Amino acid sequence: MILTVADLDVAYGKARAVSGVSLHVAEGEMVFIVGRNGAGKTTLLKTVAGFLAPAAGTVTFDGRVTNGLPAERMAVRGLRYVFQDKRVFSQLTVRENIELAAYPTGVKMAAAIDTVVGIHPGIRRFLDSKAGGLSGGQRQLLLLGRALIGSPKLLLIDEPTEGLAAGTIREVFTVLSGMKGHLSMVIVEQNLPVVSQLADRIYAMREGRILGELTEPADIKDRAKVEAFL
Length: 230
Hints:
Layout: E1 3-12, E2 15-25, E3 30-34, H1 41-49, E4 56-61, E5 64-65, H2 71-76, E6 79-82, H3 94-102, H4 109-119, H5 136-147, E7 154-158, H6 166-179, E8 184-188, H7 192-198, E9 201-206, E10 209-214, H8 217-221, H9 223-229
Parallel strand pairs: 3-8, 3-9, 6-7, 7-8
Antiparallel strand pairs: 1-2, 1-4, 4-5, 9-10
Helix pairs in contact: 3-4, 4-5, 5-6
């Protein structure tokens, strides 16, 4: 397993946000976490990524227990987190945004640009434009491309289609579909058609707990069954 989470608790002060969560992700697997706002999905991802420290339980990434490791060290080990808010360095060009992502990996700039453009060739047109002028969809594609620089082992992606127009959702779906099977991913997503078409497994969360797991391919691809599961 590339990732194992066991009996994880996470708290903000006295408020318990995640309680007793266990899950796993195999090599090359695309796992989705679904649930209503406030279910603890983002808190779970941030804890796995090293932005938050667990109150109890363990996170094991690539064969090592990583509790307490900060996010920058997790990134060096091959775990990348794509935030929900589609945040880029607005005053820098797209090229400079890519350069910042490439620097800690040691990947040369030309190769980093090829990685980003490789997932969506249209990004090349904006390399010398300020990233703040990109649409939400273009920012999301840039962030996905940046996360791939340096051949990571695991991507954590939070709400990749949130707030995007239908046409842009299709572009993001195409990118994620092209990554499927080549990279391990945990994706928080509310768009059920996207989930049912891409997921290898689905976890449902509510009030900080995992309620269940959907594993059968036929059930995952049946949107009515996914809705019933939720």
